[in-house]
Recover the amino acids of this structure.
């Protein structure tokens, strides 16, 4: 089925949507993005994604393409036009183009490019991958120092997923100065003796919208949480581990660098958090 996508004010069939070859997103990865999940045809945590988008734009001194209400309307319209019950809405804002390639930013009044499209993912919530759990490898984190800004510089995360795939695994966790930063496209956690451990927020990791919601829900469920640096060896000795992201919610991790965690199946805390997250998110979806 041909999707209807959104490009700079127009809803178009995906085959007719165009962005300039001089667009700075294309030439310099000078663009930021958000991925918002859809359950029951409704948006999960739209507010959180809109707030983070604004922050990413501000950090890069990039103009806002439109206001939050307009963004919400575009998200909803695309979900409706494409009949998405379960899936994702991808949004990208780039600094646009003034019609040439130049490292120097174009004038501040250059129109940013705004592109959104949907991805239909039936079975996103009831995912067989989450029932199985993910096997991960650890790799060096060689990304830039502003991972708190959600830019489209995703070549290394992509390479990380390929390294995992070649090793017969599902994903990779990134390690810097001996400590786990995050997953290629998710935040990372382990559980030992009932306590959830995850890296604190800083410029070293993306401030996950799912992370924030899951930690709040875990605290409400009286679970113990510790935000601190941790090594991959500590995670390998854990009772269980998991990741969080808008595209996979809470994903149990069952193996790290070939070492099975617990009995090698998704752990009880990860499973419970996934259930709570899906349940609460569905109720709050808009
Ligand atoms: N990735 N860390 C990184 C590096 C990410 O790319 C993501 C999200 C997260 C989790 O953030 P959130 O909970 O807000 O989705 C953490 C998205 C899903 C992606 O690139 O597709």
């Amino acid at each position: 089925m041909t999707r209807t996508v959104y490009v700079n004010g127009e809803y178009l069939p995906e085959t007719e949507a165009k962005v300039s070859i001089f667009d700075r997103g294309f030439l310099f990865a000078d663009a930021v993005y958000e991925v918002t999940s859809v359950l029951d045809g409704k948006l999960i945590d739209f507010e959180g994604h809109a707030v983070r988008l604004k922050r990413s734009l501000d950090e890069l001194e990039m103009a806002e393409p439109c206001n939050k209400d307009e963004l919400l309307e575009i998200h909803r319209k695309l979900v409706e036009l494409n009949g998405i019950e379960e899936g994702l809405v991808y949004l990208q804002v780039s600094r646009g183009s003034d019609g040439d390639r130049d490292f120097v930013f174009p004038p501040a009044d250059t129109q940013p490019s705004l592109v959104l499209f949907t991805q239909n993912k039936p079975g996103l919530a009831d995912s067989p991958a989450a029932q199985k759990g993910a096997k991960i490898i650890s790799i060096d984190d060689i990304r830039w120092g502003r991972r708190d800004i959600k830019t489209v510089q995703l070549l290394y995360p992509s390479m990380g997923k390929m390294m995992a795939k070649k090793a017969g695994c599902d994903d990779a966790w990134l390690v810097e100065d001996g400590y786990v930063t995050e997953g290629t496209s998710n935040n990372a956690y382990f559980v030992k003796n009932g306590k959830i451990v995850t890296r604190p927020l800083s410029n070293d990791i993306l401030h996950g919208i799912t992370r924030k919601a899951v930690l709040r829900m875990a605290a409400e469920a009286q679970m113990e949480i510790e935000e601190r640096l941790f090594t991959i060896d500590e995670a390998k000795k854990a009772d269980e581990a998991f990741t969080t992201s808008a595209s996979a919610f809470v994903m149990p991790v069952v193996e790290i660098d070939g070492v099975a965690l617990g009995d090698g199946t998704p752990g009880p805390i990860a499973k419970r958090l996934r259930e709570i997250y899906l349940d609460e998110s569905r109720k709050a979806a808009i």
Summary: The CA atoms of residues 67 and 234 lie 44 Å apart. The first strand starts at residue 4 and ends at 7. The chain has two domains: 4-120, 128-284.
